[in-house]
């Protein structure tokens, strides 16, 4: 009897599995943040639905969430949104074929679309970092 | 092709969300930064302000638009992730249908809330 | 400091090779070998040394030993690479850890099962499709194509079907259904070829539920491709083409025509006659 050994990386393959460039981890982070925002958003639809029952119901719902645990959770969702939005703009441009360059005869040393668009990735991460600093200022220092 | 059409809407809705949610997040979270810079004075989460916005036609419309685009974008993304997990074809189909049904149901519920609160008087 | 071990005068290097015996099944394990190192030695040379001197049962696939046949793809020190085009010293490590390419079932030791790769490749119908089958099967002349039109796909035609891209891809890591970077690139290679008329036939798998839209530009395929094919680019160009088409910005092009006969073709008169043979063959 001959056995084949199944060697798919599985979910681990999204996070690691080799010495790959940052783009591959950006992919995993985009998924994670997308799912995070989606989970928050679905909850948010119902929480904001309490407005139906007037200002008192709304305020008691808000009081329920007014504790450090939810504050930190909300902040994480906010960071996820910032990354997902900025990286999302990059992905929209790339996936519509705008930043990948033109095909041609490959000659050594080979370049490729991923290398060519690298400055855009770096730029996107810098913008995300700046926005995260603003977000931190808002959440932890300026909000009373 | 069906998948092409769904994906185009996924991408187009991303662009729409960028503006709609950008506005929402700007108001909710950047208000304090703007205030600190002397560019305005808002307390966006105060109950009075929440209801004032809800009863403004502009906000009602953008909330509903954001609800629809974000539901489509998020649920297509969710389906796309689940489609990449080697699940059985029938399960993948069922997930697709579930996403469609859940999307419509949530859209109706959210729209109902937005319209009813918009119509509320004297709060 | 030298990165390889000194043993006597000869430098040597440790190979850790994944072993799997299909008769026994179970979990594959790493086995160590110490291999003498010489200048210019490739990972493939190291494996040959082990097979000749240490363990004749070690199994892998290779043929051309010059990066052309696409048989020797392996997971070497953290990346999918060709064993024959990577010199050991260029790995900058005193250990060479070799495993079979991930995302394919293991047949034995370092031999991956490529059924998955070839099945997906077949699904995009990777050949010129013409409506006029008679002309295609017994051609009267070549199809017209300019040098510029060739540029649209020649890069993708460099693919040697080594399967490195599919083993680097994070979508392929979880999805058995995904058509994958290699096959999607070949599908686009024919869509971008002006001689092709099989737009619908290639598009079916390319734009299916498990086609180009399951690519999220992780870029690993292009990073590891040994031939500069850039599958990630081909996939995004395929998405772009579908998008522009749906906006009505571009139409399906007609297949390139057969080149017209060149008038007053006088080749026979111009080619000088071969000189008379100076050696007479015995019959
Ligand atoms: C701020 C504006 C947003 C932009 C510009 C944006 C952009 C994108 C893009 C371009 C993708 C496709 C990635 C790909 O296929 O490679 C994507 C995926 C996704 N987005 Fe968004 N998005 C935004 C907001 C949201 C929101 C509000 C949600 C949640 C409701 C969300 C949830 C998701 C999910 C779950 C995915 C799937 C992730 C994946 O397949 O890897 N996004 N987003
Ligand atoms: S695209 Fe590159 S990595 Fe993928 S099979 Fe072809 S040659 Fe190998
Ligand atoms: S042996 Fe042919 S590509 Fe390596």
Keywords:
heterotrimer; A: about 140 residues; mainly alpha; 3 helical TM bundles of succinate and fumarate reductases; 6 helices; about 70% helix; B: about 120 residues; 5 helices; elongated; binds protoporphyrin IX containing FE; binds iron/sulfur cluster; binds FE2/S2 (inorganic) cluster
Structure write-up:
The complex is a heterotrimer of chains A (144), B (123) and C (283). Chain A has a single domain, classed as Fumarate reductase/succinate dehydrogenase, transmembrane subunit (3 helical TM bundles of succinate and fumarate reductases), CATH 1.20.1300. Chain A is 70% helix and 0% strand. Chain A has six helices and no strands. The longest helix of chain A has 28 residues. The termini of chain A are far apart. Chain B has a single domain, classed as Fumarate reductase/succinate dehydrogenase, transmembrane subunit (3 helical TM bundles of succinate and fumarate reductases). The longest helix of chain B is centred in the C-terminal third of the chain and has 31 residues. The mean pLDDT of chain B is 88. Chain B has 123 residues and is mainly alpha-helical. Chain C has 283 residues and is α+β, with helices and mostly antiparallel strands. Chain C has two domains: 101 residues, Beta-grasp domain (Ubiquitin-like (UB roll)), CATH 3.10.20; 132 residues, Alpha-helical ferredoxin (Fumarate Reductase Iron-sulfur Protein, Chain B, domain 2, Orthogonal Bundle). In chain C, strand 4 and strand 5 form a beta hairpin. The radius of gyration of chain C is 24 Å and the shape is globular. The N terminus of chain C is likely disordered. Bound molecules: protoporphyrin IX containing FE (HEM), iron/sulfur cluster and FE2/S2 (inorganic) cluster. The site of FE2/S2 (inorganic) cluster has 12 residues of chain C, from loops. Iron/sulfur cluster (SF4) binds next to helix 5 and helix 7 of chain C.
Task: Please write out the topology.
The complex is a heterotrimer of chains A (144), B (123) and C (283).
Chain A: H1 12-15, H2 22-49, H3 54-65, H4 68-95, H5 113-116, H6 118-142
Helix pairs in contact in A: 2-4, 4-6
Chain B: H1 2-29, H2 31-36, H3 47-54, H4 57-82, H5 89-119
Helix pairs in contact in B: 1-4, 4-5
Chain C: E1 5-7, E2 10-19, E3 29-36, H1 43-53, E4 73-76, E5 79-82, E6 95-99, E7 106-108, E8 111-112, H2 115-123, H3 133-137, H4 147-151, H5 164-168, H6 170-174, H7 180-191, H8 199-206, H9 220-224, H10 231-246, H11 267-270
Parallel strand pairs in C: 2-6
Antiparallel strand pairs in C: 1-2, 2-3, 4-5, 4-6, 7-8
Bound molecules: protoporphyrin IX containing FE, iron/sulfur cluster and FE2/S2 (inorganic) cluster.
């Amino acid at each position: 009897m001959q056995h084949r050994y199944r060697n798919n990386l599985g979910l681990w393959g999204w996070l690691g599995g080799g010495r790959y460039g940052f783009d591959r981890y950006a992919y995993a982070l985009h998924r994670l943040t997308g799912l995070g925002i989606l989970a928050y958003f679905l909850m948010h639809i119902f929480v904001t639905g309490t407005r139906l029952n007037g200002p008192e119901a709304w305020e008691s719902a808000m009081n329920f969430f007014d504790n450090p645990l939810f504050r930190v959770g909300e902040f994480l969702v906010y960071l996820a949104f910032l990354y997902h939005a900025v990286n999302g703009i990059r992905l929209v441009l790339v996936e519509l074929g705008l930043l990948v360059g033109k095909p041609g005869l490959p000659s050594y040393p080979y370049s490729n679309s991923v290398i060519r668009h690298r400055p855009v990735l770096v730029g996107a991460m810098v913008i995300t970092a700046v926005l995260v600093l603003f977000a931190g200022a808002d959440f932890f220092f300026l909000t009373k | 092709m069906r998948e092409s059409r769904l994906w185009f809407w996924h991408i187009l809705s991303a662009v729409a969300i960028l503006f709609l949610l950008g506005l929402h997040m700007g108001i909710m979270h950047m208000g304090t930064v703007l205030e600190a810079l002397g560019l305005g004075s808002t307390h966006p989460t105060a109950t009075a302000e929440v209801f004032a916005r809800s009863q403004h036609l502009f906000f009602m419309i953008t909330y509903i638009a954001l609800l629809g685009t974000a539901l489509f974008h998020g649920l297509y993304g969710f389906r796309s992730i689940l489609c990449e997990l080697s699940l059985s074809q029938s399960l993948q189909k069922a997930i697709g249908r579930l996403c469609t049904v859940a999307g419509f149901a949530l859209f109706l519920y959210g729209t109902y809330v937005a319209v009813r609160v918009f119509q509320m008087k004297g709060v | 400091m030298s990165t390889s071990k000194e043993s006597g005068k000869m430098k040597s290097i440790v190979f850790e090779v994944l072993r799997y015996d299909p008769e026994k099944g179970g979990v594959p394990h790493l086995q160590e070998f110490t291999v003498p190192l010489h200048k210019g030695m490739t990972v493939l040379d190291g494996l040959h040394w082990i097979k000749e001197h240490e363990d004749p049962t070690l199994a892998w696939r290779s043929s051309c030993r010059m990066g052309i046949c696409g048989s020797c793809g392996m997971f070497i020190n953290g990346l999918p690479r060709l064993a024959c085009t990577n010199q050991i010293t260029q790995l900058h490590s005193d250990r060479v850890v070799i495993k079979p390419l991930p995302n394919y079932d293991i047949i034995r030791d370092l031999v991956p099962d490529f059924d998955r790769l070839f099945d997906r490749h077949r699904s995009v119908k990777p050949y010129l499709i013409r409506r006029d089958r008679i002309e295609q099967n017994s051609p009267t002349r070549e199809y017209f194509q300019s040098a510029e039109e060739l540029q649209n796909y020649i890069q993708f035609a460099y693919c040697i079907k080594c399967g490195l891209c599919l083993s680097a891809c994070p979508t392929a890591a979880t999805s058995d259904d995904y058509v994958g970077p290699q096959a999607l690139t070949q599908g686009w290679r024919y869509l971008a070829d002006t001689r092709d008329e099989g737009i619908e036939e290639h598009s079916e798998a390319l734009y299916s539920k498990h086609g180009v839209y399951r690519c999220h530009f992780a870029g690993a395929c292009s990073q590891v491709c040994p031939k500069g094919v850039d599958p990630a680019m081909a996939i995004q160009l395929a998405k772009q083409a579908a998008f522009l088409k749906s906006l009505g910005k571009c139409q399906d092009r007609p297949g390139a025509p057969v080149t017209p006969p060149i008038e007053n073709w006088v080749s026979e008169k111009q080619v000088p006659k071969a000189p008379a043979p100076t050696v007479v063959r015995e019959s």
